[in-house]
Every structure is written in structure tokens, then in C-alpha cells.
Design goal:
310 residues, alpha/beta, Rossmann fold, eight-stranded mixed beta sheet, 10 helices, 10 strands, globular
Length: 310
């Protein structure tokens, strides 16, 4: 028996809906959103809720954390990966698990440009941890020039006084704090970051989300943030990708611009992060719940496209 007119029309509508859904899914799968920043808590403080929208939209998302966690006083002299550093990385994973609603994730070591790098996969979201030493912000433990301490960042004595800023400015090599690899030059680090992005994006269009490199638009930020921002500026040119730049510490001085929902997303993600840190370490010495600055971060996110988005 042939179809009635009504059945034919329903069939055509169903086919059209299927084609529309397939197009939407294809568009989502064609975009890879890279969230590049310095420390384990930076994407939560400065790039949320944008990252949440990309995850909810079904895009492939990769978070790249370049620097390892801040060493504790106990690790200054031991040159070992501190318990606090481990707790911060686990807090980062707990926050991502909440974001993706993935209770389990896989671990994998990858080799890029000859460098051994740690990754974790949470469904359509992956985390890349490069574990490079963070700088001793504003401190003179490894030098005597306050301006260098503020803008470039000296390192910690326990980690051979190495920092991202010194790798950029003077070519001083830097080694991962777990001794998994080392970078001999700024271009070595840039090429490795490019290799990581090319590995994860494959044939998808890249949207690079990174710290703001313009010091006038983003004043008084962390030296590690600026170093990663400068790397992202080079990567943006190399990859010819859409680039979104996020302001850092200075957002605490700007008007509140997130609605209640955006603020709640930020707060829940960061609370999940710091709860895991406290669970594993006993406290979170880098975060004070009464800190006006940190709480101001949770009410604001400021970003701009590097170029008009087509």
C-alpha cells in the first residue's frame, strides 16, 4: 500500500530534521576549542563561563596548563614535586570532571617534538599538563632586580631558578618539575605547543583561548600569564586561527559583568577545585576564602577577539 499525502509530508519533515541535526553535529565536531593558560586555576578564574558554553555546545575542548602548581615552602630545598602541587592537579581534574559530568577519565603520556607530556581525557575534553616551574612572583630569591621579578619572574632556588619569563627573555632552559622533559629555547616551547594543538585539532577549525598579551589592556598580571600570552600571540599567527584573549588579575578592579548564572558556574567549579585540594593536602595555602581579589575574579570575565570573528 502506498503512503498517504499526510504520511509523505511527515516523512519529508523527519528527513529534513535528520539532515538539520546531522549538519549541527557536524558543525560542532568541526571546531576544536583550545584553552591555554599558565596555572591549574587560571581557566576557572579567567576563562569561565566561556569554556562551559563550548563544552555544552558539543565542541572538542582541550585545556593546556603550561606551568605546574606553586611550590610550597617544603619543596624549595627538596627539588621534588610537592604534595601541594599534586593536590592542585587533582583539584583541576575534579573541576573538569564536574564540568564534563565524566566520573572517569583516562591517562596518557604523549610525545610531541621529542617531549614527554602528561594528558587526561574526559570524553570530548582533554587536559594537557606540561608541568613547568612557576615563577616566584615579585620575589628576589634568585635575583636582585625588582623590575625583573615583577615582569619576567625569577624562579625558585629548588628548581634551578628557572621560569617561563626567563626562557622567553634570556633563553634560559627550563625543566618540568617532575623531570619528564626540558625545553632548550623559547622556540622549542612554541613548537611543542603548536604540535600539541595540531595533534588534538586534526582537521577541525581552531579557536584559541589564551591570556591577553597587551600590557595596556591587561596590566599588573602574573609574569607566567604574560609568558603564556606571548606564546599564544605567536601561535595565533602560526595557526591562523580564531583567537580570544582574556584579561587576568586586573579584572578584580573592573565592573561586575557576569549575571547570576555565570557567577554561580564560576563559583561551583572553583569550589570543587579547592575542596579537592583541601581534601588531599589539608588546606589550600594559595586560596583564602575571604580574599577580596579571588572573590572578585568569580564575578567577572573580560575577553576580546584578537581580530573580528567571521
Amino acid at each position: 500500500m502506498g503512503r498517504t499525502t499526510g504520511e509523505s509530508q511527515i516523512s519529508l519533515r523527519l528527513c529534513a530534521m535528520k539532515e538539520t541535526i546531522e549538519v549541527i553535529v557536524s558543525m560542532k565536531r568541526s571546531r576544536c576549542c583550545i584553552y591555554l593558560h599558565a596555572h591549574t586555576d587560571d581557566w576557572q578564574f579567567f576563562q569561565t563561563p566561556n569554556i562551559c558554553r563550548d563544552v555544552d555546545s558539543g565542541y572538542y575542548v582541550t585545556i593546556i596548563v603550561v606551568s605546574a602548581s606553586v611550590p610550597t615552602p617544603q619543596s624549595y630545598a627538596t627539588n621534588t614535586y610537592s604534595e601541594y602541587g599534586f593536590a592542585r592537579e587533582e583539584g583541576n581534574k575534579a573541576s573538569i570532571a564536574m564540568l564534563t559530568e565524566e566520573s572517569c577519565w583516562s591517562n596518557e603520556r604523549i610525545t610531541v617534538q621529542g617531549h614527554d607530556i602528561s594528558t587526561n581525557n574526559f570524553g570530548n575534553l582533554s587536559l594537557v599538563s606540561m608541568k613547568l616551574p612557576t615563577c616566584a612572583t615579585g620575589q628576589l630569591l634568585c635575583g636582585t632586580d625588582p623590575e625583573v621579578a615583577r615582569t619576567t619572574g625569577y624562579g625558585w632556588p629548588a628548581f634551578n631558578c628557572e621560569s617561563l619569563g626567563q626562557l622567553r627573555d634570556s633563553g634560559k632552559p627550563i625543566r618540568a618539575i617532575d623531570s619528564s622533559t626540558s625545553y632548550s629555547s623559547w622556540s622549542d616551547l612554541i613548537d611543542t605547543l603548536q604540535g600539541i594543538i595540531e595533534r588534538v585539532h586534526r582537521d577541525r577549525s581552531v579557536w584559541l583561548n589564551a591570556p591577553e598579551f597587551d600590557r595596556l589592556l591587561n596590566p599588573h598580571d602574573h609574569p607566567d600569564h604574560y609568558a603564556v600570552a606571548d606564546a599564544a600571540k605567536i601561535l595565533s599567527d602560526k595557526l591562523a586561527c580564531t583567537t580570544i584573549l582574556y584579561s587576568g588579575y586586573d579584572i578584580a578592579n573592573r565592573p561586575v559583568n557576569l549575571d547570576a548564572h555565570g557567577q554561580e558556574i564560576k563559583r561551583k567549579l572553583f569550589q570543587t577545585y579547592t575542596k579537592k585540594v583541601v581534601e588531599l593536602y589539608g588546606s589550600d595555602p594559595d586560596y583564602d576564602v575571604n580574599s577580596p581579589q579571588y572573590n572578585a575574579f568569580l564575578l567577572r570575565t573580560y575577553f576580546r577577539p584578537l581580530a573580528p570573528i567571521k
